[in-house]
Specification:
The protein is an alpha+beta fold and 159 residues long. 21% of the residues lie in helices and 38% in strands.
Length: 159
């Protein structure tokens, strides 16, 4: 059976959530964020050349009702594969997974803000999208309620 190795919960990227690979003297490859977490992301993009290098910097940005921009985020490329059936003669559609590296507190705060505005919980089955902040709030509420239930002594007399 599949064993999840990720440390952070992944959220599906909303429309308007993008990432761009930045390397000196090369075209910038920009694509739609497929999913994102506090530990990394997956982006689908168009490329005229082959694989990305193993280490890179990316810029993460999103624009819907709000614009959020994280510049030059250091990352390690975990995989970079061509998407079957999504390519043309000299341009290929690729899917790339990256792991963030060396994030400072300011970067983590901005990344959390980005996730809150440009991602949603893809595992939710009911109508509507749940933001990552709502997931945390609901979990905290459940823990608080559960702890109150177990902490209260029973008022029933012993029979």
């Amino acid at each position: 059976m599949f064993e999840e190795k990720r440390k952070h919960k992944r959220f599906k990227g909303k429309k308007g959530a993008f990432a761009a690979f930045i390397r000196p003297n090369e075209l910038i490859n920009t694509g739609q964020i497929q999913d994102i977490s506090m530990g990394g992301l997956c982006v689908q993009y168009l490329a005229a050349n082959g694989d990305n290098e193993k280490r890179s910097e990316i810029t993460i940005f999103g624009s819907n009702n709000r614009f959020i921009h994280l510049r030059s985020v250091q990352c390690r490329i975990i995989y970079d594969r061509e998407v079957p059936g999504g390519s043309w003669k000299q341009i290929s559609t690729r899917r790339c997974g990256v792991e963030f590296e060396n994030l400072f507190d300011k970067d983590l705060s901005m990344l959390q803000d980005f996730i809150d505005h440009f991602a949603f919980d893809k595992t939710r089955k009911s109508k509507g999208q749940v933001t990552p902040r709502e997931v945390k709030t609901r979990k905290a509420s459940r823990v608080e309620i559960d702890s109150k239930r177990t902490a209260l002594p029973s008022n029933r007399p012993d029979a």
